[in-house]
Design brief:
By secondary structure, the protein is an alpha+beta fold. It folds into 2 domains: 143 residues, Diaminopimelate Epimerase, Chain A, domain 1 (Roll); 134 residues, Diaminopimelate Epimerase, Chain A, domain 1, CATH 3.10.310. The strands form 2 sheets. Strands 1-2-3-4-6-7-8-17 form an 8-stranded mixed barrel. The protein has a 6-stranded mixed β-sheet with strand order 9-10-11-12-13-14. The chain starts with a strand and ends with a strand.
Length: 285
């Protein structure tokens, strides 16, 4: 039996994202997402599902919830979801002058996510800024690569719903070996998703590799918002506001951090979002 579902496909710096607008049981979401991401379907790098709010604050404010396919948090999906609400004139999008201010729930985040969206000269392109959750923990770590007799230095940044490891791209000889080593390490912990962020400091270029546990999916993403935020946190080593324009395979993401008393107090990430298509897909039950 085939059932029809409405969807929207968006392009935040080529981190192609699909939003399923109709209700889907949580237990069915990973399998549906896996099929949707395929080349022979809608095709994308990640999938989010629209749900009713779960938290007391979310219910009180009657906001929408975005549940990512593996229960993870994604900054690109967050700012893209806000752009969609502005595009479709959702009641959650509060317009003040030429900007939209939008709050919603999201998987992997403890509180509501806040976004600011503005239109551009193109009808289907928006400039969207999201305030990201503060990292839960940051620490330095080392990974010993089996049979290589060498160690890789990394910075581990624990965000809501995802953990990122920042590594020097020039030090890595074999990406597969490093992923296997990091996955063995993460399998000893509770997690929804993790990323290995290969960073070239001289060129300010980030190449993101992201693994989502629920769908057992490993993907070289064209851009990664939470990974960009993790990188910015790892680069912030003194007081004040810091701004970074991080180049990635799919384009540039802009991220700002605010540090006070040796603590990160605020992280915002911004960039363009293109509404690519909306329509119906068929899913075999």
């Amino acid at each position: 039996m085939k059932k029809k579902y409405n969807y929207v496909k968006v392009n935040p710096a080529e981190n192609m994202t699909i939003f399923v607008l109709d209700k889907v049981n949580r237990s069915e979401q990973p399998e549906m997402a896996d099929k949707l991401m395929n080349y022979n379907s809608v095709c994308g790098e990640q999938v989010g599902f629209v749900e009713s709010p779960e938290t007391v604050e979310g219910k009180r404010k009657n906001v929408i919830r975005l549940q990512m396919m593996g229960g993870e948090f994604c900054g690109n999906a967050a700012r893209s979801f806000a752009a969609c609400m502005a595009f479709f004139h959702d009641s959650s999008a509060k317009k003040i002058k030429k900007r939209y201010f939008i709050d919603f729930e999201m998987s992997g985040a403890d509180g509501l996510i806040s976004c600011e969206v503005r239109r551009t000269e193109r009808e289907n392109v928006f400039y969207s800024k999201v305030q990201l959750p503060i990292p839960r923990k940051m620490e330095k770590c080392k990974f010993s690569i089996e049979n290589k007799n060498r160690e890789i230095d990394a910075k581990k940044i624990e965000l809501c719903g995802i953990t990122h490891f920042i590594v020097d791209a020039g030090e890595i000889e074999n990406n597969k070996d490093l992923f296997s080593t990091v996955k063995r390490y993460m399998d000893g912990e509770k997690y929804d998703a993790f990323g290995i962020m290969y960073y070239n400091l001289r060129e300010c270029f980030l190449k993101p590799l992201v693994y989502v546990k629920a769908t057992d999916s490993l993907l070289w993403e064209k851009s990664c918002a939470s990974g960009t935020a993790a990188l910015a946190v790892s680069l912030t080593d003194n007081e004040g506001e810091h701004n970074y324009a991080v180049k990635q395979p799919g384009g540039i993401l802009e991220v700002s951090t605010l540090s006070k008393n040796n603590e990160i107090k605020d992280i915002t990430l911004s960039g363009p979002v293109e509404i690519v298509s909306k329509g119906v897909f068929y899913y075999c039950l």
